[in-house]
Specification:
Layout (H helix, E strand, L loop, with lengths): L1 E4 L7 E2 H7 L8 E3 L7 H5 L6 H13 L5 H12 L10 E5 L2 E5 L9 H19 L3 E6 L3 H10 L5 E8 L5 H8 L6 E7 L2 H13 L1 H7 L1 E2 L6 H17 L7 E6 L4 H11 L4 E8 L4 H8 L1 E3 L19 H8 L4 H14 L1 E3 L2 H8 L2 E5 L2 H15 L5 H9 L10 E5 L7 H8 L20 E4 L2 H13 L1
Parallel strand pairs: 5-15, 6-7, 6-9, 7-8, 8-16, 10-11, 10-15, 11-14
Antiparallel strand pairs: 1-2, 1-3, 4-5, 12-13
Length: 463
């Protein structure tokens, strides 16, 4: 299996190099040169199997012969043993043929754990084989940082720097990062938005001298291994609801678009997916793109679903690349222009192709709050604001087919104040992290200046 850049100016690489590099040197994102595919019989055979076994097959299809099947199975078993539910991603029915896929049973109570726990083990395995160490830099709108810190803390081959927008994530989200005591972890509160953090990470990767000096890598959803790992729960949930004999639709709370793009990946691998709804909050760049054909950045607005407060969705470049029939010249032109002007028009044929699968819906704050209340009253399920955006979006789409799965991306206890204000019920942290508020925090405050943060990363990596 080889991986190519969406911008076409970097040589193809194998799975190991794609994972450890994260972002391609030309600023593009890695994608497989061809999509692996499963037969209907193979997909049907996933039914009832342990989650780790399905994960090993799905992720293994992207690793090819670079990781032995027995090593992949071992790593998946170790990764998903960290979850507090035996099903790993259980389904809960909340309406006629409508289900929540609970993605929050991992160590940091968010869907990012599903990918990050296996990614950390892949790094250990691949770096250990090369007797190599790396420095990971990641930007987080709330959940990626906590999941990354939890997965990589204490690992001998990796140092990790997590950037988060100061004052724009919940206290629980922040504490999952900043209470790590291990010396290989550094957290930075950036005086800006998530988009500022994400832009700084991209600039850091484009600094070739720094990249080589500290052996830089990234574990945001720019890293294709994250996407491969997230595709797994599309298979397990759809098969539990009758796939491949009937298609399923998915409603995905969307910020950086990695979670929704993973559904596209599952579809390209053979899973019958009828529809993917990208549900956004007021930061509606994706919902506007799928409804109007114009991908245009706006000002980031702070909401009660902060992990989605994003106006530049990195993974949209991967879908654009597929939509323009894998034309790297057009993709590079479009996203360089987007970087400069903050907008691009999707070519008509590419837009029509996207619309065959995707819909976009934006949900306001009032409707998000009402949905938390109505879901609790009607089903007894207490959901977080991001999941509420996904549930609310269902009411605005009338062409869904088959069972509908809403990806429930975070535990309500990660946003206790907003959930309590909406519902009158304060969600409790699970037993294993109940003392989170008592742990000592440790993090830096830095301005949203790329050169300042690059200097900090270098100093931390070399310390």
């Amino acid at each position: 299996m080889r991986y190519i850049s969406t911008r076409g100016q970097s040589p193809s690489v194998g799975f190991t190099d794609a994972v450890l590099a994260g972002l391609a040197p030309d600023g593009g994102l890695y994608v497989p040169d061809t999509w692996p595919a499963f037969s209907r019989e193979t997909i049907a055979g996933f039914a009832g199997r342990p989650y780790a076994e399905v994960a090993a097959e799905v992720i293994g299809a992207f690793a090819g012969d670079e990781i032995a099947p027995e090593d992949m199975r071992r790593m998946c078993e170790e990764a998903y043993a960290t979850f507090n539910h035996k099903a790993v991603v259980p389904l809960v029915q909340i309406g006629p043929d409508v289900f929540l896929a609970e993605l929050f049973h991992g160590p940091s109570l968010a869907f990012k754990d599903v990918a990050m726990q296996i990614l950390a083990r892949l790094y250990d395995h691949l770096l250990g084989a090369q007797n190599r160490t790396q420095t990971i830099v990641c930007a987080t709108s709330g959940d990626t940082g906590g999941a990354a810190v939890e997965a990589f803390r204490g690992r001998k081959n990796v140092k990790i720097v997590a950037l988060f927008p100061e004052g724009r994530i919940s206290e629980v989200q922040r504490r999952f990062m900043t209470t790590a005591e291990e010396d290989n972890v550094a957290c930075v509160a950036v005086k800006g938005t998530f988009d500022d953090c994400q832009a700084i990470v991209k600039q850091t990767f484009q600094d070739q001298a720094l990249r080589q000096a500290v052996d830089l890598s990234g574990v945001n959803s720019i890293n294709f291994a994250r996407i491969a790992a997230q595709a797994v729960y599309y298979f397990t949930t759809a098969v539990a609801l009758g796939a491949p004999h009937r298609p399923a639709s998915f409603c995905v709370p969307s910020g950086n678009f990695g979670d929704a793009f993973a559904g596209y990946v599952a579809m390209r691998m053979g899973l019958p997916v009828a529809r993917i709804v990208a549900a956004t909050n007021a930061n509606d760049i994706l919902s506007r793109a799928f409804e109007t054909g114009r991908y245009a950045r706006g000002a980031v607005q702070a909401t009660i679903s902060p992990a989605m407060d994003i106006q530049s969705a990195s993974n949209f470049e991967r879908l654009y690349f597929e939509g323009v029939r894998r034309d790297p010249v057009e993709t590079a032109r479009a996203f360089q222009a987007f970087g400069e002007a903050g907008a691009l028009d999707i070519p008509p044929q590419a837009f029509a192709t996207m619309r065959e699968l995707f819909r976009g819906v934006a949900i306001g704050e009032d409707e998000t709050v009402r949905t938390i209340v109505s879901t609790l009253n009607e089903t007894g399920e207490l959901i977080d604001p991001h999941t509420a955006v996904g549930v609310a979006a269902l009411r605005h789409v009338d062409d869904l087919r088959g069972p509908v799965v809403v990806l429930s991306t975070a535990h309500a206890a990660k946003f206790p104040e907003d959930v309590a204000k909406a519902s009158g019920v304060t969600p409790a942290l699970p037993r294993g992290v109940a003392n989170l508020a008592d742990r000592r925090e440790r993090y830096e405050h830095l301005p949203a200046e790329a050169e300042t943060i690059k200097a900090y990363v270098r100093a931390f990596a070399e310390s």
